Hints:
Substrate binds at residues 8, 12, 34-37, 54-55, 87. Pfam families: MGS (PF02142). The structure is a single chain. By secondary structure, the protein is α/β, with parallel strands linked by helices. It contains 7 helices and 5 strands, in the order βααβαβαβαβαα. It has helices at residues 12-21, 23-26, 35-44, 59-68, 88-101, 109-121, 125-130, and strands at 2-7, 30-33, 49-51, 74-78, 105-106. The chain has a 5-stranded parallel β-sheet with strand order 3-2-1-4-5, sandwiched between helices. β2, α3 and β3 (49-51) form a beta-alpha-beta unit. The mean pLDDT is 95. 1,3-dihydroxyacetonephosphate (13P) binds next to α3 and α4.
Amino acid sequence: MRIALIAHDKKKPDMVQFAIAYEKILAKHELYGTGTTGTKVMEATNLTVKRFKSGPLGGDQQIGALVADNKFDLILFFRDPLTAQPHEPDVSALIRLCDVRQVPLATNMGTAEVLIKGLERGDFAWREEDKDGFE
Ligand SMILES: O=C(CO)COP(=O)(O)O
């Protein structure tokens, strides 16, 4: 499955902890991320994360464009609800596109834990039939 990892600055420690805790599961999948989040996850684990631009520089939009083409199976986006983001429109657009394409999306660690356990259990098998490949 193709998974995107994204975290706002104050949630990056949560994302790193999550990646460490679920490294064995995540390692079985194709990982992508926004620039800084992807770098921090790679520094803390043995995972390989293909990185897009940093969120404020367009990374959310790059991932959103691929969601629009139904290329992602799961988006783990640890948002900071208490800090204004200069690129808030990009954040909202990405979340909206997940809803347009019915792509599973976690915006906090609690939901991410449920989804990653479901992923491991095989609950995402329907995505294999539904998604489109990267060209
Ligand atoms: O800003 C972000 C998501 O909106 C995350 O971007 P970085 O991972 O580059 O910090």
